[in-house]
Design brief:
Layout: H1 6-12, E1 48-54, H2 58-74, E2 78-84, H3 88-96, E3 103-107, H4 111-116, H5 124-130, H6 139-142, E4 146-147, E5 150-151, E6 154-159, E7 161-166, H7 167-172, H8 182-192, E8 194-195, E9 201-203, H9 212-218, E10 224-225, E11 230-231, H10 236-252, H11 254-262, E12 281-285, H12 288-295, E13 301-304, E14 319-320, E15 322-327, H13 335-345, H14 348-358, H15 379-385, E16 391-392, H16 400-416, H17 421-432
Helix pairs in contact: 1-16, 2-14, 9-10, 10-16, 16-17
Length: about 425
C-alpha cells in the first residue's frame, strides 16, 4: 500500500500511505516513501474481459496478480486483466472521459467524495441480491465506504499505525522500553537524535512531521462537527498535535531537516531510514513488519501503541483507521461481472490470502482466525490494537479530499514557519467551510 511521505499519506490517505503502503504527508512529510504479471490463462471464446486497475506495486502487486490468476483459472467466462496503476488521478480522468476500468482499487477516504459525485456505482443492490453480510465487516472500516444509505465500495484491507522502535538504539540511550506518553515521546526524540557540528543531523529520534491525524486523535481532536455542520481544524486537540510537531521541528530547523532527508534511502528497501538506523523510531502501518522481514531481517525492533496524552489516560491506544477498497467505476462496461469479481476478492478466504501476503489487516472479522496470518510478522500486535475504542477515521464527506489536501498544505506551512498555527488552521476553515453546503 503506502509508498509515501507522511504528509503525502494524509493527502491521499495516510496516496503509502500506502500503505503502505500501506499502507500511511506533503512537502515536509516524512521523506523516502515510493506488476507483477502471471501468464495469461486460457479463456472461453466468448469470455468477458475485465480491466482491473490497482494501486499496489512490487511484491504487493505480485501477490494480487496471483489471486487474479486464481480467479481466471476458476472462471473462464470472466477473465480479469490487472494493471498496476498507482496514479489514482488517472482513474478519475478515465471515468470522466468515459473510458474507465471495469474494477479499481482506491483508498477509503476517497470513496464518499467520489461516490457522491457519481464516479462510483452504488453496490447496495448487488449486496442485497447476493446476501453479503456487512455485519461481518469491522464497522470503522466499512464506514469509510458508506454514506447515509449507500455503499460505494467494499473495503478489503484496514490500516492502522503504531510506534516502531529500534531496541538497540533505545538500549544504548538507557531506555528499556518505548515511550508510553506524549511527554515521554518528546524526551525520547531529543535523547535519541544525533546533532553534529553546524546542526547537521546524523540520526533522528522520530521524524518531526508526524502523522497529524493519528496524533490529533491522541489529543482527543475532532475534524468535523456533524450536528453543527462545521469543520473544526482549529479544535484544541488538533492544535495540540501540531504544536507537538512544531516544537520538535524547530529544535532542528527546516534547513537541517531538508539536508538530512535528502540523503535518506527509499522506503521499500534496505536503506529505509528506520531499517538503516537513521530513525530510532517511526510511526507506520501494519505492513511495515513484512517489509522489515524482506529488507532488514536482522533489525532488532519492537512495536508499541501510539503514545497517549498523560493528562488523559482514558485516551490510551489512539490512532487513525484507513482502508483500501475495491469499487466499480461509473461507466464500467461489465458491472455484473465486475461485482462478481469484487465479491469473490472480498470473501474471507481470498481476503486473508491477499492481506496476509502483504501484511495488512483484513476488514472481515471472520478472516481474523485464518491460519495464513500465523507467520505474518506484527499481525497479532496490530490485530489487538485494532480493537481499541480510541481509533477513529477521518469523517467521510463530499469534501474530504479538499479538506485533507488543504489541511496538509497548511500544516506544512506551519512547520516551516511561513504561517502561525492559528493563521494556518483559520485558512483551512475559511476554504473548506463553504464546501459543507
Amino acid at each position: 500500500m503506502k509508498k509515501k511521505t507522511w504528509f503525502g499519506l494524509w493527502c491521499l490517505l495516510l496516496s503509502i500511505m500506502i500503505a503502505g503502503c500501506s499502507g500511511g504527508s506533503g512537502g515536509t512529510a516524512e521523506p523516502g516513501k515510493t506488476s507483477g504479471e502471471e501468464p495469461d490463462q486460457p479463456a472461453a471464446a466468448d469470455a468477458v474481459e475485465l480491466s482491473f486497475w490497482y494501486g499496489w506495486t512490487g511484491p504487493e502487486a505480485e501477490a494480487l496478480e496471483k489471486l487474479i490468476a486464481k480467479w481466471n483459472e476458476a472462471h473462464p467466462e470472466i477473465q480479469v486483466k490487472g494493471l498496476s496503476q498507482s496514479d489514482y488521478q488517472k482513474q478519475l480522468t478515465a471515468i470522466t472521459g468515459g473510458n474507465p476500468p471495469d474494477v479499481a482499487s482506491q483508498f477509503g477516504q476517497n470513496v464518499v467524495p467520489w461516490g457522491l459525485r457519481g464516479a462510483m456505482m452504488p453496490l447496495d443492490d448487488y449486496i442485497a441480491k447476493d446476501g453479503v453480510d456487512l455485519d461481518d465487516f469491522v464497522p470503522a472500516a466499512l464506514s469509510t465506504s458508506q454514506h447515509e444509505s449507500a455503499t460505494y465500495a467494499i473495503p478489503t484491507a484496514m490500516h492502522v499505525s503504531m510506534l516502531f522502535y529500534n531496541k538497540d538504539i533505545l538500549k544504548e540511550a538507557g531506555y528499556d522500553g518505548p515511550p508510553e506518553t506524549l511527554g515521554e515521546l518528546k524526551e525520547y526524540i531529543k535523547a535519541l537524535s544525533i546533532v553534529e557540528d553546524g546542526g547537521r543531523l546524523s540520526r533522528l529520534g522520530l521524524w518531526p512531521g508526524m502523522d497529524a491525524y493519528t496524533f490529533s486523535y491522541a489529543y482527543g481532536g475532532s475534524f468535523y462537527d456533524e450536528a453543527a455542520k462545521q469543520v473544526t481544524p482549529d479544535h484544541e486537540g488538533i492544535q495540540s498535535a501540531i504544536k507537538l510537531s512544531k516544537e520538535i521541528w524547530d529544535q532542528y530547523g527546516s534547513d537541517n531537516l531538508d539536508r538530512f532527508s535528502s540523503g535518506l534511502g527509499q522506503y521499500m528497501s534496505a536503506q529505509n531510514p528506520f531499517f538503516s538506523g537513521k530513525y530510532a523510531m517511526t510511526v507506520d502501518g501494519e505492513w511495515l513488519p513484512t517489509f522489515i522481514k524482506q529488507f532488514a531481517p536482522d533489525l532488532n525492533y519492537g512495536i508499541a501503541p501510539i503514545p497517549y496524552d498523560e493528562n488523559h489516560p482514558e485516551r490510551k491506544n489512539p490512532g487513525n483507521v484507513t482502508t483500501s477498497v475495491f469499487y466499480i467505476p461509473k461507466g464500467a462496461k461489465h458491472p455484473d461481472a465486475s461485482w462478481a469479481f469484487i465479491k469473490w476478492m472480498t470473501e474471507p478466504e481470498q481476503m486473508a490470502e491477499f492481506t496476509a501476503a502483504i501484511g495488512n489487516l483484513p476488514t472481515r472479522t471472520s478472516a481474523f482466525a485464518s491460519p495464513l496470518y500465523e507467520n505474518v510478522p506484527g499481525f497479532k500486535e496490530f490485530l489487538d490494537y485494532s480493537a481499541s475504542e480510541n481509533l477513529k477515521s477521518f469523517p467521510a464527506t463530499s469534501f474530504t479530499n479538499e479538506y485533507m489536501t488543504e489541511f496538509s498544505a497548511q500544516v506544512d506551512a506551519i512547520l516551516r514557519g511561513t504561517v502561525s498555527i492559528e493563521e494556518g488552521l483559520a485558512n483551512v476553515k475559511e476554504k473548506i467551510q463553504p464546501l459543507v453546503k
